[in-house]
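cron nightly-structures :: item 1 of 1
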Amino acid sequence: MRKSLKNNLIFLALLGLVINCSDDSENANPSLQGRWQLKAVLYDPGDGSGTFKAVDSEKYIEFLSNQEVRSNGNLCNGGTSFEEPSSGVYVLPDSTLQIDECPQNILSTRFRIQNGKLILSYPCIEPCEEKYVKLE
């Protein structure tokens, strides 16, 4: 009898932990739609030692409900400049951006949400990425 009670208590504790973790993961990965501001960049030198470095930039990217994407900066090959506006569409099944201003032969920019941050991965030989935070 005592063993059964102990097993039930363990089960309830684990169930509570699972429910609590589920709520945290929703908050950790916000909706893609909305405006995101550039906060860090990663340019790997080719040996895998690259890390994200904080930047002070006014560059943003905005995902609209009609699959449009807009930015006040270059979304073809990245950078912190916010003086070259870009626009296009985002494709959810592929998690890619198709930017109007990019040359036709350039590969698509990929995106993902990781730990609540939007990561853009540009088509570079070595890893080159930008990290954005969602604006409220």
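cron nightly-structures :: done
The mean pLDDT is 81.
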